[in-house]
Amino acid sequence: MSAMVLMTMAACADDEKVSGGNDKEETRLPEWYYAGGELGTSFITTSAAFEQPAKAVEQGGFLASFKRGEQLFEKNYVTNTDGVRSGLGPTYIRSSCMHCHPGYGHGKSQPDGPFRTNEMGNGYLLVVYNPATQGYVNWLAGMPQGHAVDPFKAPLDESQVIITWHEYTDRYGNKFPDGESYSLRYPEVTMSRDAVYAYRQGVLTEEQMGDYEVRLESTIGIYGTGLLDAISDEDILAQYQAEEAAGVPLNPAIFSGGQFTGQYTSKEASSDGRQYPLRYTYALSRGPLQDAAGANAYWNITNVTRSDRRYHYKDAGGFYARAAAADPEVQAGFPEFIAQADPERTHPEWHSGDAEADILAYLNSTSLPAEASDQNYIDLMVWHRGLAVPAVRGVERPEVQRGKEVFEEIGCTYCHKPSWTTGADEVRDPAQFFNGTAGRELPRYPYQTIWPYTDMVQHKLFMVNDIRNGWCRTTPLWGRGLHQIATGSTYADRLHDCRARTTLEAILWHDAGSDESHAARSMTKFRALSKADRDAVVEFLDAI
Q1: Residue ranges of the alpha helices (H) in 310-450?
Q2: What ranges make up the beta strands (E) of 209-333?
Q3: Which one of 22, 51, 126, 339 has the fewest beta carbons within 10 angstroms of its own beta carbon?
Q4: Cis status, amide bond into 90, omega within 30 of 0
Q5: 412-422: buried (b, 16+ CB within 10 Å) or exposed (e) per residue?
């Protein structure tokens, strides 16, 4: 409570009139206007709002590298074995990063019908898991691949994955106490067994598949992730400890008894072996940014190899490789494919003449040539870490100021923690590619006060067709009000599966199904607000 009082006092002090150097009165903007701090805030509110380089990029001399990384993000990779952005496949999820992150932000919701990853802006990743264990299935890649390069065939037939949107009535009958009504919706995803190539080929049995369910999980916004990475591990630990001490339910797989029970360790051969607090994705699955979602996606979305990942992204059970190797049509086309991929026959194990053995050797190889250069990877990560956060809009508007007050008063800031102060930001890379070597430096954000509105912790909301295992990281709220401007989406596309078409719907899902959630206490207060105050909260959330 004392921290909140101090923050409020600071905001009030910043809102005061101050005297200019020539006796002219001027208004100083409040600290929370600078969402990304001095080094990480941009001031563009157009459709390019999420695409701006942070001040730290220019100060560090990274602008040329940033621009090159931007091109790598925006452009398609191709199936060529040489040339610019070559190496797509042999199986892949999308052909570019931009497919998942329209306008550099959060993915857009998709309509009823077949799941189509070639739809620009479809940021959905299919989560296929065993409902008994809550673990990912081992017969599809963690992010299932719906495309392949000839002669290979896609591990997943996306036309047999169907999204259906359902209307939902909450326990309040979709009405506020004052009579105002609202609507809610949620997605259901069905996937036939025949959608899986290895099953159709008879390599994967029904028993091996077992029971499975499918959920949608959208990509996160990329902007500002470098600033979140600059928060110290010690401060994240202190946040968990404070919430546990206050009796907030936490995921026992992540934190219990004052200590982390689950942390991130790189799986690469170059791993430093250290453990780091989990920071990224809704599922809270990745650690420091340099080995996190973006660094991972630059390899596995397109399946383009690089010097530190000289192997294909595929299912953990090896079912796809066996199915492809035994497929007569793949066998027939493989000699021509591999002759182009390895014209110098530097890998004799791919050219033995035994088609099945050659295909298996190729798909399971851990010594593939690097298709993306080290410089490309450096540029991509300079861009990734260098994206700024848009400044808050409308800080002078009474509705926004009132919304901020109410948001704090009803307790929303417990999970959506307004601000953090970054640490020294000594860039850490668990895979040790960005290990301080000259030429591999990245933008840094030391000692910045930032306003992401997240506690970086997972909580449960108990929504129908919830995220896998129910635990979802508190979403950073900065910039989300610009989503529709930046992406051209019809909807606000909030929450982990874009179910919320408006900001109000996103708020209401925090208490739609159960009062077990920690957020339900704040939602009881929200529902009792006047319409003017409810609208003010929405205005504030869309402004930050």
Answers
A1: 319-326, 328-341, 355-363, 374-386, 398-409
A2: 213-218, 255-256, 259-260
A3: 22
A4: yes
A5: bbbbbbbbbeb
CB 470 within 8 A of CB 462: yes
Q: List all residues 6 or more positions away from 282 whose beta carbon is below 8 Å from its beta carbon.
A: 217, 218, 220, 467, 472, 473, 475, 496
Domains of the chain, by residue range, sit at 1-31, 114-220+310-371
Of the chain, the end-to-end C-alpha distance in Å amounts to 22
Phi and psi, residue 42, nearest 5°: -115, 170
Q: For 421-460, what is each residue's pLDDT tens digit?
A: 999 999 999 999 998 789 999 999 999 999 999 999 999 9
Task: Give the whole-angstrom CA distance, residue 453 versus residue 415.
Answer: 8
Distance, CA of 240 to CA of 262 (rounded, Å):
12
**Confidence band (pLDDT; 50, 70, 90) for 17?**
very low
Tokens 């973006």 sit on residue: 294
State the DSSP code for 194: G
Give the predicted TM-score (pTM) of the model: 0.93
The model's pLDDT over 302-323, given as tens digits with 9 standing for 90+, comes to: 999 999 999 999 999 999 999 9
Which token pair is 20?
Answer: 């200019």
Please tell me the distance from the alpha carbon of residue 434 to that of residue 416, in angstroms, as a whole number: 31
Do residues 154 and 147 lie in contact, with contact meaning Cβ atoms separated by under 8 Å? yes
DSSP letters spanning 48-68: TTT-PBPHHHHHTT-HHHHHH
Alpha helices of 117-249 — where are they, by DSSP H?
197-200, 206-209, 225-229, 233-245
Region of residue 242 (phi > 0: left; psi between -120 and 50: alpha; otherwise: beta): alpha
